[in-house]
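Morning. Coffee machine broken again, so started the prediction first thing and wrote up yesterday's gels while waiting. Chain of 260 residues, entered below exactly as on the submission form.
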Amino acid sequence: MLQGKVAVVTGSTSGIGLGIAAALAADGAAIMLNGFGDAGAIERLKRDLAERHGIKAGYSAADMSKPAQIRELVAAAEHELGSVDILVNNAGIQHVAPVESFPEDKWDAIIAVNLSAAFHASKAAIPAMKRRGWGRIINIASTHGLVASAEKAAYVAAKHGIIGLTKVVAIETANAGITCNAICPGWVLTPLVQRQVEARARERGQTVEQAKNALLAEKQPMLRFTTPENLGALACFLCSDAAATMTGEALPMDGGWLAQ
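Came back before lunch.
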């Protein structure tokens, strides 16, 4: 379905980003990976995606807090893979603290990576998308782009901002063959969250399954994690012709979190 298209997925060496990159590759898109990690592991990951799906794959270590490096990421994808047709702004970081003790450097870093990076990447990618008359921008927001939780001031502010940015980009590109949408996951079972669950189980003397259910029940009626593969499937749909008139939307995949 996406043969001939090129996707840049930020923060894609693990977790949600990797799940989305793998799904787009399975649909035929060439992939530019981005993120931190062991160089050998990333090279194996890139090679595996290319061989498994018969696509081209590249990698950029661009730091998503640095606008110049974000521009270089987009330029590298265009140079190495031929274009940037799909941009998935996924990179994100987190810090938890009450507002009155929230470190200012953490605030600045979270806003830079979780919000400003999506602006810089979109700004860099849109002109060529307009020239080609086709583009898909997918911003990975969160349920926290629509509702708040305590002690997550910077993350919630950034994710609310991502949804606002999504709407503006959608309006500005509505007749250019480009769509821009936000995906809003609830709890996602990434390796990081799995480790949090296991730690919680140890601390509370629970089984891992009990700890999972307790964590989910704090927010979600459905006691089931969303997976990176679920999010990848939704991203593929947003890139399909079936979603050609879907733009400016914030799409929850959250086990009923926002239904309450």
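Residues 104-132 form the longest helix (29 residues). Going to sketch it on the whiteboard this afternoon.
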